[in-house]
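Complex record, two chains
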Amino acid sequence: MGKLLLLEKAKVEGIRGYDVYRREGGYASVEKALKNMTPDQVTEEVKKSGLRGRGGAGFPTGMKWSFLAKPEGVPRHLVCNADESEPGTFKDRYLMEFLPHLLIEGLIVSSYALGSKATYIYIRGEYAWIPDILETAIEEARANGWLGKNILGTGFDCEIYVHRGAGAYICGEETALIESLEGKRGNPRIKPPFPAVKGVWDRPTVVNNVETLAAVVPIINMGGDEYAKIGVGKSTGTKLLSACGNINKPGVYEIDMTISVEEFIYSDEYCGGIAGGKRLKACIPGGSSVPILPANLLLKTAKGETRMMNYESLSDGGFAKGSMMGSGGFIVLDEDQCIVKNTYTLARFYRHESCGQCSPCREGTGWMEKILKKIDMGQGKKSDIDLLWDIQRKIEGNTICPLGDAAAWPVAAAIRHFRDEFQWHIDNPEECLVRNYGLAHYADPLKLAEPA
Amino acid sequence: MIKFSDEKLKKVDEIIARYPEGKSKSAIIPILHLAQEEFGGWLSPETMDYVATILKIEPIEVYEVATFYSMYNLKPVGRYMFEVCQTGPCMISGSDNIIDYIKKTLGINVGETTPDGLFTLKTVECLGACGYAPMMQLGKHFREHLTPEKVDQIIEECRRTAAANN
């Protein structure tokens, strides 16, 4: 088993409470940072660690922090993005539910680095029982002197507030989240200005994912350089993956990004193989927005190399032959699953979640949903596949926020890799209602390109 | 005229105090949650207008927000709302069967409420429980790894609670 930095103590009895968490070494990073480091030194360690945003985009966290404007006399805010809503993703929920103090600890250190005296956790509304857990942890931290005025006698003041959303995937997009935190509809803003300059209440703001902020704790404890030694290349540290679908052991796993995709799926330490002894057909490795891959292209890259569970290897081959690490929502489909139906439910999801500001997304997601539903129900037309392709292409890159891309990519990838399954549905309108296309050739060994 | 109890009004003040001075509009989402819980499980125009007076904003500002977020009910709902996830990961784990089973058992379609006003069935998009699928939200909590037997138990449990509270 690889090194665990976040979930190491997750199974310790009582770790949700302050006393056990503290006894197990909790809050050491706050002591270290506030007593021995300047805010800039904390940011420097995060930069050195190579930590990349764990919400999906993978942007270097230290760099994001260094963009924060610091005009004299204007308050700044750190906002923790706990709006986890990407289908397939449930890792932040696990962290908050079982290790609330780890997040609070990371938030205090990060707030210190950024100079945020009022930090907000924006949590999705459906996680309705978790704010109580977080608020209890915040109260315990305050009672023990880790929050409030003049923390550890250093002159640093900090409060953390939990803000519960009310059901909107779009609020995971940082400018929509900011609008929502201001008490408005979650319509993304046009950038620039970036939140680092003009964020919540027009103040400089950093928005980071739950896992990202929790990772600041081990980074400060062990030092950025040591953290960067874990993992491989630009995929430093550990990553939480939430695995679901047709596997034996769905759940949240922490990996150090040096294992292969095959090992992740089949080893008993992780997913434990495909449920019911069936065969692997396809996988969406990083949350519903990232390209779906057929089994053969998932386990090996187009060059025939073993595909690894890290940022670089998962995206090897670009969108034509690869996918993305995304949010770490790992969705596995077995041989009995229908790619058309799966794509239809995802298209329905994006139509439901489109905020409606940009017409390519508002209209396009609705069109895609309707066409996919038709194909799934055996009412597809010959021209539908090309029409779908045309619509997704017209959405991608033509919207204010990335929801448009996120809606377009799953459709594009499904057609790119499973076009014959779509075609089969259209050619066999009655048969497709009673049986699935099955595994077909999707697990066959890849035909490798001749070396040049 | 509807009105929060004194205890809830204290809660409202606590919520408003989380945000910087002059930014009380930020409290709208949490206060709408509170109002929905307090005033019958849905947001009537009267409830929304009341929230507007509390926050000293125009009613339209409340309507804008209430109509955007999927957790606010703009029509009356049953006492127990089964919100069953149907997005990809739940679908491949059998959520369609669960939805069909609930429809059959309660004799209602998606979006409908049983004549006794106890149950509403709603389908929702991804709730972040993909590894524990199929699932539904019931009030504050998730009910996961659903099977027809579990659905029966949940229905029974709701009926018992309702009877005990009447």
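Note: Chain B is about 45% helix and 10% strand.
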